[in-house]
Amino acid sequence: MKRKLAAAIFCLSVLGTPAVASTASGSIDPANEPVQTASLATGGLSASSSEVNMRTVKYTRAEGSPFTGIIASIAPSVCDGPRKSEALHYTYSASRPEEDLPACASSVEAASAIDQTLPVFTIADSAIDALAAEAETGLPDVPIIVNKNVESFIRYFQTNGRKHFEKWLGRSKDYMAMLQSILKESGVPEELSYIAFIESGLNPTVRSHANAVGMWQFIKGTATRYGLRVDWWIDERMDPEKATYAAAKYFKNLYGMFDSWYLAAASYNAGEGRVGRAIKKHGTEDFWELASHKKGLHRETKEYVPKYLAALTIAKDPESYGFETVDLGEGLQYDKVRVSQATDLRVIADASGTTVEEIRRLNPELLRWFTPPNYPGYHVKIPAGRSGMYAENMSKLPAAKRIAFLQHKVKRGETVSRIAKRYGTGVQPIQHLNNLKGTRLKPGTVIMIPVRANDGGARKKGKVVAEIVTNMELKQLI
Known about the structure:
Blueprint: H1 2-12, E1 22-23, E2 26-27, E3 34-39, E4 50-53, E5 72-76, E6 91-93, E7 96-98, H2 108-111, H3 125-136, H4 148-158, H5 162-185, H6 195-200, H7 220-225, H8 240-258, H9 261-270, H10 272-282, H11 287-292, H12 299-316, E8 334-338, E9 342-343, H13 345-351, H14 356-362, E10 379-383, H15 387-395, E11 402-409, H16 416-423, H17 427-434, E12 446-452, H18 456-460, E13 463-469
Parallel strand pairs: 9-13
Antiparallel strand pairs: 1-2, 3-4, 3-5, 6-7, 8-10, 11-12, 11-13
């Protein structure tokens, strides 16, 4: 794993560490034929171009290579005259360059000069080991400065925003230790945890007007790109632990694109595309200079970084700014137990000797009364020290507690009562399973219908989604 990580860092640093390039005929002479190279971070900007020397055009990829996926691209120069200083962008599919030509190539003929294969690229073990050791130290810390813009937000948090900031500090007792531990484990600065202050006030269930959700305010597309599940059953943007791992990956990618934590933070707010265009428009990679221009970045993004730095500065030393010191301690404690199928939260609460309210507090990502089906290896959180009790009680659960449920798409004019009659079940179980308070339904809505596990007639009328464990009385289904 360390070797793969080191190789990825190698690519993204645009060959900043010496590597050994070789061919079947021996080593490559560094004096011959400079080659333009550009590093392509996933979906983002290229790093600045640099030169390496290679002659061969043969390309091979070892099985399981860390270079799988498009990381770096290399092709001989097609430029006449002095090389331009900006990065040259290439996009490769397998081994063929596509799309963007070098900045100095303006004709179709120029494209023919780009070799259609990549050179063999061998990295010496010593270089990989050195990079692996470097990777363990993580990325640079966030530089903390206090200028007039930061001071303005410090005053705001001390006055008009004081009530909100006190609430954020209070929540930090539950979550901050965990957030910082995950960020450190992921190799990014712990100081990034305070971005969650200004994103959500450390509220794991908050939803913005733009449908960004959770402590880290992910939109659905970004969440799923970084491995979070978002569907009818579960929204892992609300899981502080999983969402923080996803945020750490996102921060790493943003830093790889911009080589600046301020630009990475601005991109987290506005999107890497907008920040990239602002850099190109104004010809600077200094956040404060970008923020000084009227056009390029929105006001919200210009204020985002100083607001973040103000929150970080106060939270690091609350007493100096008129707030009570918060003892972070160990934070929220819980055990995680594997749930193999959809299970009623009341069953989980009973088995672990706690309340449904506590289970929901520990698992804010669960949108229904049941854990999600078709989720191999899903772990639900229960109070710390209860995993043994839970396992013992669940092993005693009778088979009669198991039922099945079907999916039903609501048609115009259908009510809960009519649907319940169709499937031979009750109104209350349908309401319970779908978190419904009334009986009216919106056409096109997909709801779940609980039925007896052995009810063949009901199964023929709808698709069985999963078996579930519930504490609903079976007589309610009749």
